[in-house]
Amino acid sequence: MTTKSAFASLLLALMAGTASAQQASRATTVEPQDKTQSSPRLNPVQVRADRLSNQMVRDLRLNNYQAAKLRAVNADKIAKMAVIERKNAGNPSLIDAECNGVCKERDKELQAFLSNDQYSSYFGSRATYYKYDKDYAAQSASILLTNSVQNPAPARANDATIAPASTKPASRPAGNLGRNAR
Asked: What value, to the nearest 5°, has the Cα angle with vertex 22 and ends 19 and 24?
């Protein structure tokens, strides 16, 4: 009987050791990073909107609710401005005219949730905020252009280059192509 109980306790100890080792290995596994999430490096429009929003939150002394609303409004309006800037790249007067229309839309949306004092302060500083955003957009565009010229992206993600397919002979070679050809 003692050998059976000794064997059973040994078997139980081994099983408990493997179970704890499995749990420890599960605890140390690292989850792979989700590559579908946007990052500031990949989305310069969002960085631009966040930068302007941060400046406006500081200057206007907004609470969390107002800051969240402002960030949503700025993200939308800066995205529209970026599309306008790309579409009319060679015509600065047309860009300014269309961006002023977008700024007027932003004015109406901000008036809905800012206090009278905050909106008055914003309204008086609109030109400053517009210049602040335009300066950053011009600076970041030149930085992105310089970076793309100095460090061009590979043609494919695995650094493979795309080349024309190898040409095959137009006619079949003469000779025996059956089972006995070697």
From this structure: 110
Q: Using CA atoms, how far apart are residues 38 and 115, in angstroms rounded to an integer?
A: 33
Q: Give the C-alpha separation, 51 to 111, whole Å.
A: 21
**Does pTM top 0.85 for this prediction?**
no
Show Cβ contacts of residue 74 under 8 Å, excluding neighbours closer than 6 positions. 49, 50, 52, 53, 56, 106
Q: Decide if 104 contacts 4 (C-beta within 8 A).
A: no
Supply the DSSP string of 24-55, one letter for each residue.
Answer: HHHHTPPPPP-TTS--TTT-HHHHHHHHHHHH
Non-local (6+) Cβ contacts of 64 within 8 A are: none
Rounded Cα distance, 62 and 50, in Å? 15
Which pair of structure tokens corresponds to residue 21?
A: 């080792």
Q: How many CA atoms lie within 13 A of 5 on its CB side?
A: 2
Distance CA 15, CA 9 (A): 10
- Which pair of structure tokens corresponds to residue 160? 């493979």
Q: For 3-23, write each residue's pLDDT tens digit.
A: 777 666 766 666 766 555 555
Q: How far apart are CA 133 and CA 25, in angstroms?
A: 50
Greatest Cα-to-Cα distance within the chain, rounded to the nearest angstrom: 98
SS3 171: coil
